[in-house]
Design goal:
With 58 residues, the chain is mainly alpha-helical. The chain is built from 1 helix and no strands.
């Protein structure tokens, strides 16, 4: 009986780990898809350029 309880505990832990890894993969795919969809936006992403790049206005 003791061995069966150890088996069940180990099995439950492996299932929890697999679920956590699956969720991590799902989040990564969602983030990647969000980045890819932003690349095709007509306005594009505005970058914060170097402020010293241009001469000061007179």
């Amino acid at each position: 009986m003791y061995e069966y309880e150890i088996y069940r505990s180990t099995s439950a832990e492996l299932i929890r780990r697999a679920d956590a890894e699956r969720e991590i993969g799902r989040v990564r795919r969602a983030r990647r898809a969000a980045r890819r969809s932003g690349r095709q936006a007509p306005e594009g992403k505005v970058s914060q350029g170097d402020p010293s790049r241009f001469a000061p206005a007179a």
